[in-house]
Amino acid sequence: MYRNGHLGTSLLLYAPVGYLLVGSRPLLALLGGVVVVSLASFPDIDHRLPVVSHRGVTHSLLFAAGVGVVGWVAGTLLGGLAIQPVTLGGTTVSPALFLGFLGAYGILAHLAGDVITPAGVPLLWPLSTTLSLSVVGADNTVANYGLLVAGVLATGAALAAGVPG
Predict the structure, then answer these.
(1) What pLDDT, in 10s, does the model give residues 17-29?
(2) Exposed, middle or buried: residue 32 (CB in 10 Å: 0-12, 13-18, 19+)?
(3) Which among 70, 47, 71, 73 has a CA at the least distance from the CA of 58?
(4) Which of 58, 34, 49 lies closest to 110 in space, CA to CA?
């Protein structure tokens, strides 16, 4: 997918998380969405790294885990900010673990956008197996804007439904 498709996929996949948070922690719901959307195109950094092939390591579960660990470490270092633990669907986690989750989730959202293309993604990199659902080409304008619109609508609906009224 292209940038708009990745933004839409990130919003679409963040919508349930935002829904779970917005009623009790609206600022955290917003900040979590910002983190996930900020990572929407991060795996495509491989376009600018001469020694890394496109849709290689940066499009794998290993990379998602690595970004999650970086998020967890950042959250641990920021732990003195008196941020309350985060409860999602009845499970309470530390702010550091939540930030790690957001990091990994943001990368996984990108991979979800690319797995529907014929090129697919090497989820188990360095193994050469590529997973592709081959639904639509990455350059399909209708699909990219369709995902963006779907993501905006799903996020808006989730947030509206989650706000106590």
Answers:
(1) 999 999 888 888 9
(2) buried
(3) 47
(4) 58
- Residue 53 near residue 63, CB atoms below 8 Å: no
Q: What is the DSSP letter of 93?
A: E
**SS3 call for 91:** strand
Return d(Cα 55, Cα 123) in angstroms, integer: 10
Domain boundaries of the chain, sorted by first residue: 3-162
Those residues with Cβ within 8 angstroms of residue 156's Cβ, 6 or more apart along the chain or in another chain: none
Give the C-alpha separation, 111 to 5, whole Å.
Answer: 11
Distance, CA of 41 to chain centre = 9
For the whole prediction, is pTM greater than 0.85?
A: yes
